[in-house]
Amino acid sequence: MKKLVIYYSFEGNTRLIAQTIAKAVHADILELKPVQEIQTKSFMKYVWGGQQVVMKKTPNLEPLIVKPKDYDLIFMGTPVWAFTYAPIFRTFFATNKLWDKKVALFCTHEGMPGKTLPNMSKALKGNDLITATDFLNVLKNPDANQEKAEIWAHKILVDIENQHQVFRSINQKL
């Protein structure tokens, strides 16, 4: 089974979780990069980022280094911006039609996940959403969050393998 972790990270929180998952399950990794990133790290990042969300912006995306459609299991992670996913994912969803993939969603935040995961799920209709989780204050508590990410990712693989074993057993009996 080919595995891919797709993520966007502005300050490093989502990157840490994405890299942890990729390492834990031996997955390829794809960082979504806007052609022009928001330049501020101050309070203004909330203003500019929130404006992109509210205005439903689709920032230009740098070319992808892999083809997500070539993978069976895709982990997808975003920071929470204005209680939903980062606008770069709006661009990704519009330009990369995924179909019939097993998808595990995650988000990182410093308060509440809002509707981030349900909104991502809606954007991925036609796929098998197998699970979703969120990670709070990642860079403030990296060890606990990395451990949570490893356990979560391993459980997904075990669940998928168990499901395959059940199907194999049923098919052998037929």
**Which oligomeric form is depicted?**
single chain
What is the CA-atom radius of gyration, in angstroms? 17 Å
Report the β-strand fraction as a percent range.
Answer: 15-25%
| CATH architecture label | 3-Layer(aba) Sandwich
What is the N-to-C order of secondary-structure elements (H for helix, E for strand)? EHEHEEHEHEH
**Main beta-sheet annotation:** 6 strands, mixed
Task: Give the C-level CATH assignment.
Answer: Alpha Beta
Question: Helix proportion of residues, in percent?
Answer: 40-55%
Q: Pairing-aware structural class of the strands and helices?
A: alpha/beta
Feature tags:
alpha/beta, 174 residues, 42% helix, Rossmann fold
How would you describe this structure to a colleague?
The chain is an alpha/beta fold and 174 residues long. The protein contains five helices and six strands, in the order βαβαββαβαβα. It has a single domain (3-173), classed as Flavodoxin domain (Rossmann fold). It is globular and about 60 Å long. The protein has helices spanning 13-25, 44-54, 87-95, 116-123, 142-173; strands at 3-7, 28-31, 73-81, 84-85, 102-109, 128-136. It is 42% helix and 21% strand. The longest helix has 32 residues, at 142-173. Strands 1, 2, 3, 4, 5 and 6 form a six-stranded mixed β-sheet that branches. It starts with a strand and ends with a helix.
